[in-house]
Amino acid sequence: MARGKNERLVSLAHGSGGEEMRELITRLILPRFDNPLLGALGDSAIIDLPGEGRLAFTTDSYVIDPLFFPGGDIGYLSVCGTVNDLAVSGAVPRFISAGLIIEEGFPFRDLERVLDSMARAAAEAGVKLVTGDTKVVARGAADKLFINTAGLGTVRPGIELGAERCRAGDEIIVSGPVGSHGTAVVVARRDFGLETKLESDVAPLNSQTAALLEVCPGTRMMRDPTRGGLAGVLCEIAGRAGLGIRLEESAVPMLEAVKEVCEILGFDPLYLANEGIFAAVVPAGESGRAVAALKRAGAGRAACIGKMAQDDMQLVTVNTLVGGQRILSPLGGELLPRIC
Q1: What is the pTM assigned to this prediction?
Q2: Which residues form the PurM-like C-terminal domain (predicted)?
């Protein structure tokens, strides 16, 4: 059947984590599956089981290119990403599933390497892989290997998270340097001929989120800034909270190698994917003990980077190093495809 002249087509931008992806979700998906659990648009759905507590349920797919990159691979990433979506939802990760879509001709040695990484990540996070599926497709029908995961966790009693709980004056913290994963992957693709020892930050975060919630049970919300980076997450938080955000550029932790690569390529590291840090909003005055707890849990570069502010326009602004101010807008288009 011939396509109409003005027929809309899915583009790479619809998977970017930015405005196009949000349009796809809100215009195509939500109207067809409208329910409160899905409509919350969290990293996990929080399901109340009367008399039995609450479950967190999440799913994700991994199509990263290249499969193996400095600091990790698609297997380690798939388990950590699923664990982290549960952890930032206030849950203790318990069980995961894995579906493997393997292209015909994929080397056994590479598959074993990926599976070993998945097993290592599961052991580090304290989760069990309890079910899964394997499909093999003809050459050219997939790009080497795709992985789909799902995860279940139990939500800690008394923990309530959500952007709607944020208040003006609340403090924003990050658990580590931003932009490391996206930068490491783009360098690993060798499209730009850059050399660096930078590694992805991919890691399970459940021990760090638990440490935060232990000292700050009133934490407003947590998110792991993957696609769209820290800027994308903060724009989403501001919009859903109905507030503005004021960041201090000097306070945002960042590795020198990330700064150097981004300066060469013209990228803004605040929009690059992270896979081993999370952002959180805590009540005013609690960032000091929150950061201290994160550092004790291994997040040595954790920092308070800004505050929620009363702002009817819901702007995310950055006080720059040179004394100016700039606005962070939601990502438009696709900055780096297939980054996770």
Answers
A1: 0.94
A2: 167-312
